[in-house]
Amino acid sequence: MRALCLLLCVSVGGMVGCATGGQSQKQGKRTPPVASGPEPSADPDDPTAGLPEQEVDVEPVDKGVTAGDRAKAATQGMLIGAIVGAQAGPIGAAVGSVASMIYGAVTGESPMGGGGGAGPPGSERGREEEIEREIERENQRQGELEDEIAGELERQEELLRQIEQGEQIEAIAGQEAEAAASGAIATNNREAPTAPAEKDLPAAIFDEEHRKIAAGAWGNERELAVLVRSLDADRDGAPEEVRYHDEATGAILRKEADRDFDGDIDEWSIYDAAAIARIEQDNDGDGKADEWQMYGKDGRMTAREIDRDANGERDAFFVFREGALAEERHDTNADKKVDRVVFYSAMKLDHAEEDQNHDGKVDAWTAYENDLITRIERDANGDGKRDTFETYDTSSGRSLLALREEDKNQDGKIDVKSVYEKGKLKQRQISDAGLTPL
């Protein structure tokens, strides 16, 4: 036991001595070397003669683990090794102390983690902490980027919805006019349709009740006593058809129907002398009529009006005369003003008038032949005078621009003439070199 304690003391003394000796040697003063080189010039004309040499400061260089760090680590290792080795007895304490002391002296680090001193700034633990902080910052940036992407996608979706709604409204607004130019209208027939025939159903399948219809409820001047007949075929509590008959005469006055069987009435038929005079329809399912059909005494349609953009205003009007379509009127920009009128003759397109700049005045006139455009005249500057004339070739079965004539300076004479072949510009003639064609 004494031998072991002696060995321990000798080892500690030797390690501490080596460490402090090395440290003292490193901190001892060194005699500066004698400057070598040629002697200073004794020339009195030399401006540098006799001046002392300048000293240059050199920043210290970090050389890693110092001898002091090793001594401190050896001391900590010796104590830790002795404590740990004591679990196996005195011999274990001595062996653990010596081994841990040697490890600390060689590496400059405590055997149980950490260094003999504060450790260099770039230690493993510091690097791990820096990596964790960088990962956290990167995750934060990723989260912010995902939020930005989500916000941008939401803005794009909203923009697409707005564009889609605009396109739908524009498409609906121009549907009738485009169909007219191609030779077809919404009814798919320029012959006046006949009123739908009344279904002859047995009275036994209807439920009957008596009601009073207040004056003005249907546009009626006085109160009406009616017999109501309801047909609820599927017994869901929502009738598919309701008929209102004059209680005194039995003549039908009004009929309501659920055409798509969704439980909501979407068609209202009004009768005059037991004949259909008007039909109102809800085609978009919002509970409000958006199409109105009027019929004459002969049962043929006389007019049809439509609210195409569901804004509560009628924007397409079709007029039938003598059993045939005679005229169309359209509000293409939803300003409650008709800006396009199409006229028919013998159920064929004849001519059209348009207010293209929506200033309340007609500024474009179109002529048709066999439902094909043959000529368009325009008032380009809105002064009420036609100054642009387009002629179309219809020999191919299509309307292809053949000639455009323009009065650019509004003097009543054609200044620019453009000739087209198969719809493509072939040549252009300009009467005045100072004029610029459109």
Outline of the structure:
By secondary structure, this protein is of the alpha+beta class. 28% of the residues lie in helices and 26% in strands.
Q: How would you characterize the overall build of this protein?
A:
- The chain is of the alpha+beta class.
- Among the domains are: 1-23 and 66-116, no CATH class; 194-299, no CATH class.
- The protein is built from four helices and 18 strands.
- The chain has helices spanning 2-27, 67-85, 90-107, 124-181, and strands at 207-213, 224-231, 241-246, 252-257, 267-272, 275-281, 291-295, 301-306, 316-321, 324-330, 340-345, 348-354, 364-369, 372-378, 388-393, 400-406, 416-421, 424-430.
- It has an 18-stranded antiparallel β-sheet, with helices on one face.
- Number of E-type strands: 18
Work out the helicity level: 25-40%
Low-confidence regions: 1-13, 15-62, 115-119, 168-173, 175-187
Strand content: 25-35%
Query: What string gives the helices and strands in order?
Result: HHHHEEEEEEEEEEEEEEEEEE
Largest sheet: 18 strands, antiparallel
Helices, by number, come to 4
Structural class: alpha+beta
Task: Give the averaged pLDDT, no decimals.
Answer: 78
Rg over CA atoms: 52 Å
- The coarse overall form would be elongated
Taking the alpha carbons of the first and last residues, their distance comes to 116 Å
